[in-house]
Amino acid sequence: MKALRTFIADLQNEYQLIKMGFVKDQNGIIRRFMREKQHWVDHLTQSKNFILKSTEKKDKGTCAVLGSGWLLDLPLDELSNMFSEVILIDLIHPKAVMHKIQKLSNVKCVHADITGGLVDLFYKSLPKNRILPQALKTYHYKLSVRTDFVISLNILCQLHILLLDYVKRFNVYSQNELAQMERIIQESHLEILPKNKTCLITDFEEEILDEKDKIIGINPLIHVDLPEGNFSQQWQWKFDSSMTYREEAKTFFNTKAIDF
Ligand SMILES: C[S@@+](CC[C@H](N)C(=O)[O-])C[C@H]1O[C@@H](n2cnc3c(N)ncnc32)[C@H](O)[C@@H]1O
After folding, report:
1. CA–CA distance from 141 to each of 112, 118, 124, 190 (Å)?
2. Cα of 212 to ligand 1 centre, how many Å?
3. Which residues line ligand 1 (CB under 6 A)?
4. Which is the closest atom of ligand 1 to the Cα of 118?
5. Which uninterrupted H or E stretch holds 76?
6. Where in the sequence is the domain holding 141, given as residue range(s)?
7. Cα separation of 36 and 165, whole Å?
8. Mean pLDDT of the region 147-153
9. What's the pLDDT score for residue 3?
10. N or C: which end of the chain has fewer CB within 10 A?
11. Integer Cα distance of 223 and 157 in angstroms
12. Beta partners for 68?
């Protein structure tokens, strides 16, 4: 009976994540990676190298990875060798990732909402109940107190996007309220990251370019102050050179990595 209940709960959860767009988005990442491989290599290498540098002065007990996804930007084998345990945290873990970790006995996948419950909250309350933006401030993901090293893996600039795209379908919030929610979600994420135990990697702005690589627009992606940190690095992620993300324009992200 318990097994049947778990099976039904898993199905409902999967249906919810499909309906809200999370599954499509994650599959989109791997498809874009296959298309853009040669343009992504530099970003993925920089991300992995920075993470390894950031591990240097950290205790080597538990490492938690927020937004692990396809592990494209994560040096998983090295982390598994270095730490007693590595916990990959995401709403969805692709089957290929579940398969890969089978041979790494100290790595496990945890299904969790890194916003601390906003995914469920919006799914269950809209359109009937309109949650006040201020109420979002009480939602935080709780990392285990045993965590020695946290990697926020290109998720800070992403956390609000799919959530708010879902929310926008109901037309119940003004542009101001949506911007307020975006800020609160980013602030809450920064608040859960422990000092001197964190490696934060995030895109902070997007550049839109024409086919001759002339910049035709720049949009900020982070609406809160980022910590200065012990050390940091910046690079560009040539995210979409084939002009499929935006019609007739390329999209590059400026990415920042911070050890703090
Ligand atoms: C841009 S990807 C990060 C890149 C990732 N490291 C990779 O290689 O695929 C964002 C990831 O965050 C996950 N994600 C988005 N919102 C989330 C949430 N509220 N809680 C947990 N994971 C979330 C997505 O499922 C996706 O796998």
Report:
1. 9, 10, 18, 11
2. 31
3. 22, 26, 29, 67-73, 90-92, 113-115, 119, 153-155, 158-159
4. 19
5. helix 76-82
6. 2-259
7. 25
8. 98
9. 83
10. N
11. 9
12. none
In degrees to the nearest 10, what's the CA dihedral of 42, 148, 115, 54?
A: -20
The answer to whether the predicted template modeling score (pTM) of the entire model surpasses 0.90 is: yes
- Do the bridges between strand 198-209 and strand 250-259 make them parallel or antiparallel, or are there none, so unpaired? antiparallel
| Residue to mutate, 155, 167, 203, ligand 1, most ligand atoms under 8 Å from C-beta | 155
Confidence of residue 8 (pLDDT cuts 50, 70, 90): confident
Using an 8 Å Cβ cutoff, are 29 and 253 in contact?
A: no
**What kind and span of H or E run contains 214?**
none
Name the phi and psi angles at 105, rounded to 5: -70, -20
Tell me, in angstroms, the distance from the centre of ligand 1 to residue 69's CA.
5
CA distance 145 to 125: 31
Number of domains in the chain: 1
- Residue pLDDT, tens place only, 86-113: 999 999 999 999 999 999 999 999 999 9
195 CA → ligand 1 middle, Å: 22
The string of pLDDT tens digits covering residues 182-230 is: 999 999 999 999 999 999 999 999 999 999 999 999 999 999 999 999 9
Point out which residues pair with 209 in neighbouring strands.
215, 250
Nearest CA to ligand 1 atom 13: 67
CB 254 within 8 A of CB 238: no
Q: Which two tokens stand for residue 254?
A: 């400026």
CATH number of the domain where residue 77 is located: 3.40.50
Q: Can you tell me the distance from the alpha carbon of 68 to that of 76, in angstroms, rounded to the nearest whole number?
A: 10
**182 near 164, Cβ under 8 Å?**
yes
